[in-house]
Write a structure and sequence with these properties.
Elements: H1 3-20, H2 29-48, H3 52-57, H4 65-79, H5 84-88, E1 90-93, E2 96-99, H6 109-122, E3 130-135, H7 141-149, E4 156-163, H8 166-180, E5 186-190, H9 195-198, E6 207-212, E7 217-218, H10 219-223, H11 227-230, E8 239-241, H12 246-261, E9 266-272, H13 278-287, E10 291-296, E11 302-308
Parallel strand pairs: 3-4, 3-6, 4-5, 6-9, 7-8
Antiparallel strand pairs: 1-2, 9-11, 10-11
The structure holds S-adenosylmethionine (SAM).
Length: about 300
């Protein structure tokens, strides 16, 4: 059989599965077909190192039994709801390839906007001793992409990546070593929220520049997710508590307590949130005199918060 015919059949098969998944409901059939095509392209690129052009040039050639078997296996794994990222073990984020496994959330495109937002804001900081931290680092995508793109004139007094999950932390370290080099200066610490960094002695005029994409879904939202996400990706990376905002509020509280102890210290906190918890967090910040800016994502929904105090 020729590549072309084989691929059309497999694309239809994959598109049929995708269409049955809650994530793709409401998306036009031809768009779902294109998503299936793209997934197969990514898989073939991963397996054979062929780009789209090479694939096109091979369309009228005979496909080997081995290539057929590999692609069929890929489609059948997708039909078992295993996400593409976990099958190929990698996900592109901010133009970089991150290694992922079942202990790490697969980086999402909206998180790239958090990195971009924080990169812009850090250039506005005039002062002093900056301590940078990524809380809930997962694959390490935020801290690694941030450091790869940080202007050279910005000096940092410490860089930390925190996660409660040691297995995720190992992957974050691996990704940082591969993409930033072994002497990247990031300290990877296992622990909850800000406690691993607040325990450390720092100068009193420190400014904590915090990036966090913490779990922010409510129990109810988790129940409504596609099985591809809720069964395959780590629950600890997704659910923030019964109502969703609990972990984020806890992080804000830890920072507030530190500020009350040392008034000279400052916090700039960049959070990715779900639009459903935006009002609850804003209200909490208002009642604690925290300056809060909301940034919408590309689809116009409240997705990021910048808190300063
Ligand atoms: C939504 S994932 C984000 C992963 C990665 N930063 C990204 O954007 O793709 C949340 C991460 O927070 C970690 N986490 C959950 N509770 C935590 C806590 N109390 N302290 C630190 N990390 C936590 C999870 O293990 C998970 O890796």
């Amino acid at each position: 059989m020729f590549w072309r015919k084989f691929l059309i059949n497999q694309t239809k098969e994959l598109a049929k599965y995708l269409q049955s998944d809650i994530q793709y409901q409401g998306i036009l059939t031809e768009d779902v077909f294109r998503i299936a095509q793209k997934e197969l392209e990514i898989y073939i690129n991963h397996k054979k190192n062929w780009n789209a052009k090479q694939l096109f040039l091979n369309e009228k050639k005979e496909i080997t039994r081995t290539d057929q078997a590999n692609i069929e296996k890929f489609v059948s794994e997708r039909k078992k709801r295993i996400p593409l990222g976990y099958i190929i073990g990698t996900q592109s984020f901010y133009g970089l390839d991150f290694k992922v496994n079942r202990h790490t959330l697969i980086p999402r495109p909206e998180t790239e906007e958090l990195v971009e937002y924080a990169l812009l804001e850090i250039t506005k900081i005039k002062k002093r001793s900056i301590i940078l931290a990524d809380i809930g680092t997962g694959s390490g995508c935020i801290i690694t992409a941030f450091l790869r793109n940080l202007p050279r004139n910005i000096k940092l007094n410490g860089v930390f990546a925190i996660d409660q999950n040691l297995n995720a932390l190992k992957y974050a370290k691996l990704n940082a070593n591969l993409l930033l080099g072994k002497n990247n200066g990031v300290k990877f610490l296992k622990g909850s929220l800000l406690s691993p960094i607040l325990r450390k002695k720092t100068s009193l005029d420190s400014l904590y520049f915090i990036l966090a994409n913490l779990p922010y879904l409510s129990e109810e939202e988790f129940g409504g997710l596609s099985l591809e996400v809720s069964q395959e990706e780590p629950r600890i990376a997704l659910v923030g508590g019964k109502y969703g905002q609990e972990l984020i509020i806890q992080l804000i509280n830890e920072a507030l307590q530190e500020k009350r102890k040392h008034l000279e210290k400052n916090f700039e906190i960049f959070l990715e949130i779900s639009p459903t918890i935006s009002n609850a967090i804003k209200k909490y910040c208002l009642s604690n005199n925290i300056k809060t800016k909301v940034k919408k994502d590309l689809s116009g929904k409240d997705r990021f918060l910048h808190l300063s105090f």
